[in-house]
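During the second half of the funding period, the structural biology subgroup turned its attention to how the target accommodates small molecules. The most pressing case was 2-acetamido-2-deoxy-beta-D-glucopyranose, which had performed well in the primary screen but for which no bound structure existed. We therefore specified the complex as follows and requested a full 3D prediction, including the ligand pose.
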Amino acid sequence: MFLHFLVLGAFVLHSECYFSEEIYPEESQIQPPTVVIAILARNTAHSLPYYLGALERLNYPKDRITLWAATDHNVDNTTAILKEWLTVMQQFYHYVEWRPMEQPTSYAGEMGPKHWPNSRYEYVMKLKQSALDFARKRWADYILYTDTDNILTNPETLNLLIAENKSAIAPMLDSQGAYSNYWCGITPQGYYRRTAEYFPTRHRHRLGCYPVPMIHSTFLLDLRKEGMKNLAFFPPHEDYSWPYDDIIVFAFSCRAAEVQMYLINKERYGYVNVPPKPQHTLEDDRLNFVHVHLESMIFGPPMQHSKYIHMFQKQRDLMGFDEIYLINLRRRDDRRDRMLFSLNELEIDVKVVDAVDGNALNSSDIKILGVDLLPGYYDPFSGRTLTKGEVGCFLSHFFIWKEIVELQMDKALVLEDDVRFQANFKRRALRLMEEVEQEDLNWDIIYFGRKQVNPGKEKPVENVHNLVMADYSYWTLSYAISLQGAQKTAQR
Ligand SMILES: *[C@@H]1O[C@H](CO)[C@@H](O)[C@H](O)[C@H]1NC(C)=O
Ligand SMILES: *[C@@H]1O[C@H](CO)[C@@H](O)[C@H](O)[C@H]1NC(C)=O
Ligand SMILES: *[C@@H]1O[C@H](CO)[C@@H](O)[C@H](O)[C@H]1NC(C)=O
């Protein structure tokens, strides 16, 4: 009896607690909005590992993201790379919609992988529309379109776009030039118009969130907003008479639906590859991408490829030289990394030589090395004699010349570590050296990069493109040197 009572008492007490005590006084948090990311990939095997690496690092819960990925008309390895990545990543994302198409590999009337006939514009419009329909059916809050050569290196990009609370918004993307993913003006016929705002925005002299008539390539649409119901990528609006181009069709659709497009440039968000010309090859496109990649190494944040994609080793060579030297000051490993990356991408092999650190030299060192400054030498720009840094720089080159003579090399190429390669550097250098060979030129040094001391007419070398007899020049950024050139310069 007693026992029974106790148990009952305990029960009553317990149930009182249960009804009166708030165990979880805080309401649980609202989950972040749901996002569909639309990936339309074609012939971008070179940028995809970096593109996907950046998506992977976006600071946003993956279980609130659905990936919608389509790929088609490829001549390169795009499908395999995307598939490899999605296969690993699908477990982390809410859902993956995968729409690969292996055949055909080109569009009707297409003259190359970077040419856009109307059939291609139409196909892309339809794809973007399918992604939009998909996101609407799933009641996604947002859809993010981002081209596969746009690398969102800033992991906060998606959050920063959402925070602006706009219907249609793009992050300003950087490139190696003036190009970006927005227009500040549009002509009455729907063509690009450059206005006074473009450069101040592009160069970040003004920072903010601005209404613009065109955003493309990477942009976020807020599907919860009323006006979004009427947007379409395809078919074009019934009043449409502007050029048949997916980005212009969509900008027109936004206008017709009274949806304002916005651009933010408050931070760096990522990079866009300059679109290749219609006649360009995939290799031209890849080289453009190398340049934009370098841009990201200089200004940051740098691009990083996905670790879930296999990266192949490049086949490097010496471009017909006996040696290619890269002079690098040991403490400038940022420059060394950048140069080694560029050279690897250009498939150029190189020997890194430690530069002589001029600041560590004293006058007796210089004497022991047996180097004398030319009597009466003065700097043509500043009018002063050499600094220690310049002596160090000279010595670095000097030791290379000696090595060329010692090893009886036919010719070598010397690069300093702050070189920036022009587009098609390798192809142009190879052609130049070939023509020099054909002409049987008797040469000592060929500057690949320099500063002219007395700008003026220099005599062109016959039958060799882009080569002149150099007047007195300055800087030793990059040059080819022959054995006889090295014998002369290494003499003392
Ligand atoms: C294409 O990519 C896949 C996945 O990364 C890789 O396994 C394959 O070797 C690649 N093929 C070529 C020809 O690069
Ligand atoms: C976002 O914009 C909508 C109008 O489109 C407005 O009603 C809403 O209050 C805004 N939200 C915030 C958090 O500012
Ligand atoms: C110059 O530096 C060397 C070490 O690098 C040292 O042995 C030498 O004594 C120095 N000479 C003078 C004049 O400071």
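Two results from this model are relevant to the next phase. The two ends are 116 Å apart (CA to CA). Residues 35-286 form a domain with the Spore Coat Polysaccharide Biosynthesis Protein SpsA; Chain A fold (CATH 3.90.550.10).
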